[in-house]
Amino acid sequence: MKKCMFEDFIDDYLLNRLVKNKENKFEEHYFNCPHCFGKMMERQEFISIVKNISTDTNAIVPRSSRGALQHGNPR
Ligand SMILES: [Zn+2]
After folding, report:
1. Which residues are in the CB-under-5-Å shell of ion ligand 1?
2. How far apart are CA 37 and CA 16, in angstroms?
3. CA 46–ligand 1 middle distance (angstroms)
């Protein structure tokens, strides 16, 4: 199956990186393209999972590693 040329826009669109007129073009396109629409749903789910994980890790990791550095200094 041929890859749709708009597929490259999906991530940028979801991350709000597209300029306004590309964004409009892409929106017009994906409503009429089941391929992009499906991909878009997949990516959206993936991106929201990744974002949740990274905010969780940011909240947890720095605290514990900072504590380990302060108390575990070998000198
Ligand atoms: Zn498409």
Report:
1. 4, 6, 33, 35-36
2. 17
3. 19
